[in-house]
Amino acid sequence: MPLLEPKPGALRPHGVAGPAPDRVPDHRAAGTPDPLRAELTALLGAEKVLWKVSDLVRYASDASPYRFVPQVVVVAEDIDDVSAVLSYAHGRGREVVFRAAGTSLNGQAQGEDVLVDVRRHWAGVEVLEEGRRARIRPGTTVARANAALARHGRVLGPDPASAVACTLGGVVANNASGMTAGTTRNSYRTLASLTFVLPGGTVVDTADPRADEELAYAEPALCRGLMEIKREIEGDPELVARIRAKYEIKNTTGYRLDAYLDGATPVEILRGLMVGSEGTLGFIAEVVFDTVPLDRELTSALLFFPSLPAAAAAVPRFNAAGALAVEVMDGNTLRASVSVDGVPADWAGLPKDTTALLVEFRALDEAGRTEYERRAAEVLAGLDLVAPVASITNAFTRDAGTINGYWRARKAFVTAVGGARAPGTTLITEDFAVPPSRLAEACEALLALQAEHGFDAAVAGHAAHGNLHFLLAFDAAKPADVGRYGAFMEAFCRLVVGRFDGSLKAEHSTGRNMAPFLELEWGPRATELMWRTKRVVDPDGLLAPRILLDRDPAAHLRGLKTIPRVEAVADPCIECGFCEPTCPSEDLTTTPRQRIVLRREMMRQQPGSRVLDGLLDAYGHDAVDTCAGDSTCKLACPVGIDTGALMRDFRHRRHSAREERAAALAARRFKAVEGAARLAVAAADRLADRAGDRLLEAVTGAARKAVRPDLVPQWLPQLPGAAARRLPRTERVGAAAVYYPACVNRIFGGPEGRPGPSLPEAVVAVSERAGRPVWIPGDVAGTCCATIWHSKGYEAGNRLMANRIVEAAWGWTAGGRLPLVVDASSCTLGIAREVVPLLTDDNRALHAALTVLDSVVWAADELLPHLEIRRTVGSAVLHPTCSMQHLGDTARLRAVAEACATEVVVPDDAGCCAFAGDRGMLHPELTASATEREAAEVTSRAFDAHLSANRMCEVGMDRATGRSYYSALLELERATRPRPEGTRGTRP
After folding, report:
1. Is residue 187 within 8 Å of residue 175, measured between CB atoms?
2. What is the DSSP string of 889-958?
């Protein structure tokens, strides 16, 4: 047993509210039962079968109000794995549900038996025909696909608000559309072809000229059944007219029956049926989209009206003027969105009924935009707008920053409103469409119905297409509240169908909460054809039962999840999953959403339950230890939930008093610690040269076992040698800034084998060349940004060092008169922001006067305008650090790189490397997982320079790519270095 085990019971929750009615029962504590676990392990391999109770719980929740715990989770790597699972399920009479991003809002990504993860190994984009088409794997997010297409001036037609997180497999399976797709740019209309696996294991590529011939041979009964239904529909003119009419507005309720009218062969029919089928007819393994132009010339406005009906009445005018997007946000939405970064604070004081329209025109060129602005002005002249708070302009703008702010507020609808709901309540997101001409009437009717049932819902949506979303919150643990919700749903569905002949699901797909109302919308004849379609394609009912078709009239009330209170920072979470693509441990252990989901399940349990014990056993490693603590989840979360901060707090809770005292002592005596660390690095480097890396790996490996893996770093061959003992000489007189070399750059040296100056020497030299000399204080040794203690949760040491660095910086900068330039982005973030909560009142006042700049910002803003670029490299690839994302400095890194290289590339999959100081040495597997996709991009071609802005992140990328990363400031020094007299050429 290690010498320093975490404090026992530190993570056990206090004030457990359980037992909750939807808790995982104790008989599930052992996880996946045998023989299911053993058989799937033998079939696929142990690494592809997730069986612990913590695995099952973290996969049980998605962005919907439902929760179903699977029996097992399979992580499929390829089509062979999918086919093997389907074959196994057939033979054992089991059920299968596919899950990718888990951003669906109606429980489509949840199953009660075998759940198959088709996100982790299923990402990839291939741009075809200069961007006119794209071949995309189902685990690829919409945002990632669009990033690849944007370079060609193209974009996908579907544009859901969850584009940063939702994946293309789910987009197609739900026929998700979004702000601008309407009925013409959705998946059904823009999908060129797809490859799918049928329940029987047959793989179909609809682009293959022989696809129908091969399908007829493999699945003759399926082909006959589809063609029989086609003939039956086409023989009923009234039904044909009804089907066509239903798709004149947005509609994703049930199967796409128009696929029988649009397709001439079984493969063509299946190509249409798969869109919006929610995984009930097959697994979508690959899609090829026809893309649409990326119109870059924008003009947008956020226009405020006195009421929702008044705003809705203005929509047809903007539609007629050619607006591509007309989005509506009611007062509840606008007030809740003040939690979103960049939204004006005075929106919190908007009158209750105030409603806004976000109107956007997009054009290919300047002439087109000017014409749209003329039309928009004509519409504005006839509107009665209001401006109840000072920030409202009610004017169209071309400013990209302002437009992005409008869209941030709109896209955060579900998360911002959900985050503002009463703690402990479950969130329901509804999505319906009416003919756009009747939108104002529908808004009035919806408001009246909500009031009748005691709901004060938030409303937003794609007004241009008659498509509204609204959110309801209720307590799923209270039968009376569930009954109130059930009564509202009955009345709402009858209102939409009976009064407006609308769509009960416009773009979120049927799901569990609308399946019982399918016949109400479509009628018995069409509904029975949908049931027949399911039986023809999936005769054994293998795939996703009860998700799209369900004869139980109360199915929408089954499986509703309770939301127990947890730590305050996590309480607003609605489990949307927007945080997951940014999380370094996403493919290794858990994500921010899953960390919160697991915590909530702990609160559902009663003290002493075996399930609680099982969750706690796994949580230390899977949630706390393998969290990089970079808080990029906070940037991705529309309401700023910082799960990284929660994990750092959990680390603090697990520390013994002895550990805390040792960490505080290290802070007090950091000058000695720093010197010892530099000597140790130098000694280890010499030992590695003589005895090889294996000896050091063995020594540190033994120490990790004896002490604790989360305390003793593992030796990595990529670690640089020691820094020089002395920093460059500088003068205080005449200095334009104070230069603070971070302790990491005082301990570790630069890249091995790279000629030229050290980073501190480079910063001093390039600043001198620009006429902006810097001064390095003589007493920087023994100071630190406090990030070492901050990231590990050592509170006393963190507080001590935070106050020490601020007091020192105050003196160095002459009371803030000079900027403090820091040469490691994480340290810049630490001094600029992270130390503030730990400061005394007096030191907080000192800190407020400081100007803390990252060295990259210093170079881009203060040095570049005064430097002569004497030589450049052909290409440079960048690794923007997560700290730079927090600081908003990524553009400056690119500016410096563009001065030094002809071509600058930021990988589409660039993200946090998870090295996180020493976490990449404590858990090397974390960095390996976090950097896998970025490293694949980087190593797919040659680059002349690999640049970043943090030494340990550079080490992490060295390890991931086998390439040598170094600071952009080193490359800038080389690019501006005077040539020795008598030399010529582009390189020194």
Report:
1. yes
2. -HHHHHHHHHHHEEEEE--TT------TTTHHHH-HHHHHHHTHHHHHHHTTS--SEEEES-HHHHHHHH
Which of 865, 856, 862 lies closest to 896, judged by CA?
856
From the list 146, 114, 143, the residue with the least C-alpha distance to 131 is 146
Tokens of 985: 């050429």
- The full DSSP string for 801-816 is HHHHHHHHHHHHTTTT
- Let me know: does 528 contact 78? Beta carbons within 8 Å: no
CA dihedral 112, 118, 119, 123 (to 10 degrees): -170
- Indicate the residue type of 508: H
Return the structure tokens found at 70. 């699977």
Mean pLDDT by 10 residues, the chain (988 residues): 68 80 96 98 98 98 96 98 98 97 94 97 97 98 97 96 95 94 95 97 97 98 98 98 97 98 98 98 98 96 96 95 95 90 92 96 96 97 96 96 91 84 90 93 91 90 93 93 96 97 96 96 98 98 97 96 95 95 97 98 94 96 95 92 96 92 94 91 80 74 72 80 94 98 94 89 98 98 95 95 98 98 97 97 98 98 98 98 96 98 97 91 93 97 98 95 97 94 52
Using DSSP's 3-state secondary structure scheme, residue 230 falls into helix
Residue written as token pair 């997180």? 165
Looking up tokens 């919308």, which residue turns up? 521
CA-CA distance, 678 to 683, in Å (whole number)? 9
The radius of gyration of the chain from alpha carbons, rounded to an integer in Å, stands at 30
Q: Which structure tokens are listed for 236?
A: 């009923």
Instruction: Please identify which residue in the block is written with the tokens 């007309």.
Output: 326
Q: Is the pTM of this model over 0.70?
A: yes
Peptide bond into 19 cis (omega under 30): yes
